[in-house]
Amino acid sequence: MSRLQRGLNSLSTTGGAGAGASQAGASRLSMSGSERNSGKGFDDLKRLIHSKLVDKLDLSRVSDLAGDTLRREIRLVVERLCDTENPLLNRMERERLIDEVLDETFGFGPLELLLKDPTVSDILVNGPFKVYVERRGKLEKTDVKFRDNEHLLQIIDRIVSKVGRRVDETSPMCDARLPDGSRVNAIIQPLALDGASLSIRRFGANPLKLEDLLNFKAFTPEMAMLMEACIKARLNIVISGGTGCGKTTLLNTLSSFIPHDERIVTIEDAAELQLQQDHIVRLETRPPNIEGKGAVHTRDLVRNALRMRPERIIIGECRGGETLDMLQAMNTGHAGSMTTLHANSPRDAQARLETMIMMAGMELPMKAMRQQISSAVDLIIQANRLQGGPRKITSVVEVLGMEQDVIIMQDIFRFKQLGIDQNGRSYGQFEATGVRPSFVPRLESAGIKLPSNLFQERVLMRD
After folding, report:
1. Under the phi-then-psi rule, with left for phi > 0, alpha for psi from -120 to 50, and beta for the rest, what region is 421?
2. Which of 103, 357, 389, 435 has a Cα at 20 to 30 A from 112?
3. According to the 3-state scheme, what is the secondary structure of 220-234?
4. Residue 424 pLDDT more than 90?
5. For the chain, where do the domains classified as CATH 3.30.450.370 start and end?
6. Highest CATH level, class, for 210-462
């Protein structure tokens, strides 16, 4: 007899005060007629069954069971509790109750329903009673609610504690991730005035592939051909874009072109990259402990990565002084490295790189900073989220070098917006500018031949 079965037997055994309490609970929460459809009665019953499950069954004693086995056997316990506490539930209510109790016990409570929906790309929780999602580029309010702010805090704590993070009054902000790699940000009171706030950027278990992005018309086959050639020829690439424009998704997709025999080191604040290569070392920053010590920043990891014999370094996002270390790595034998940053255009990306270099605390002359950037970065890929939700690569730009004190860049491909359709979505066309990149000889020396008409000035695709 398993431990869970012994627990089940103990739950089925009634006597003395326990039996009286159980009968009282069943009587109090019995639902029939109009009461059966009462949300309050359903929530009360769910809370009672979950409480009994946690109180009576020592889950720590069955931690050696596999997740699916544990959930299956616990389900038997919950089914017995449902029959004991309220045998009048119909089949749909019973199944819903069992699923929600299991989600509350093993998952992330009310969020599980949204996390199982593949059409949801963002989950935004503004306090316990307002939950929004983004589907196909549009925000919409859902019927999902938490019992109260305390319930929401419990779910947040469950999420962040799984990756060794914490969120409390002394540390009210936290970045974390879900088991599938989805990015999580939580902020609680006293900083969040109307209750805890939770933001989840979804990354599915099956990351989007090149074919998916081509089907979504995020870019054209010609642009994909050039980006693949640049990665295989070990050009250094910066992916620039605003919040939610698909930078990380694009970085994941482009990384699939890296040969499988190369050693890659990835550095992230919260690990969300899903690279498919075999030889990969994943590094993640660490926040300070409760005493304010022990923090490990991105810059520390970049410096350490240089001692790990990497062939390529991929930084999930540059946002501070680590940018200088990244550029120096690109300039000193780690060609083919990639990173992302927040900027609205390639020229803004250059200015942001300069600002982040200054955050390293070194007083470099402007010309020296720009020389670092122009010699390290070969290609800037600009992604944008357009009106109505479509995400596009709006320009692929080559960094040519310096002329006096100015970095010279030229567009190779670009997206030209032509208007807004009747659904409020932007539409336009992808164009080749007719400029032949100066790095084409580097591609050819790496054994990569591109079609002679690839850079011919023309419209590539109308969206």
Report:
1. beta
2. 389
3. CHHHHHHHHHHHHCC
4. no
5. 112-201
6. alpha beta
Q: Taking the CB of residue 78, how many other CB atoms lie within 10 A of it? A: 23
Write the burial class of residue 366 (CB in 10 Å: 0-12 exposed, 13-18 middle, 19+ buried).
exposed
For 10-162, list the strands marked E by DSSP: 120-126, 131-135, 138-141
User: Token pair for residue 462?
Assistant: 């109308």
Query: What's the mean pLDDT in 149-173?
Result: 87
Describe the strand order of the beta sheet including 138-141 as a list of residue ranges. 138-141, 131-135, 120-126, 197-201, 183-187, 173-177
Among the listed residues 393, 371, 410, the one whose alpha carbon sits nearest the alpha carbon of residue 463: 393
Q: Which band of pLDDT confidence, cut at 50, 70 and 90, is reported for residue 291? A: confident
Instruction: Say how far apart CA 320 and CA 318 lie, in whole Å.
Output: 6
Q: What is the mean pLDDT of the chain?
A: 82
| Burial of residue 118, with CB atoms counted within 10 A of its CB: 0-12 exposed, 13-18 middle, 19 or more buried | exposed
* Amino acid 275: pLDDT: 83
The Cα–Cα gap between 12 and 2 comes to 15
Enumerate the CATH 3.40.50.300 domain ranges in the chain, comma separated.
210-462
Q: Which of 345, 285, 35 is nearest to 164 (CA)?
A: 285
Q: Which residues of 134-161 are buried (b: 16+ CB within 10 A; e: fewer)?
A: beebeeeebebbbeebebbbebbbebbe
What's the CATH number for 112-201?
3.30.450.370
CA 162, 340, 171 angle in degrees (round to 5)?
A: 35
Q: Please tell me the distance from the alpha carbon of residue 359 to that of residue 195, in angstroms, as a whole number.
A: 33
How far apart are the C-alpha atoms of 314 and 251, rounded to whole Å? 9
3-class SS of residue 444: helix
Span 405-413, mean pLDDT? 95
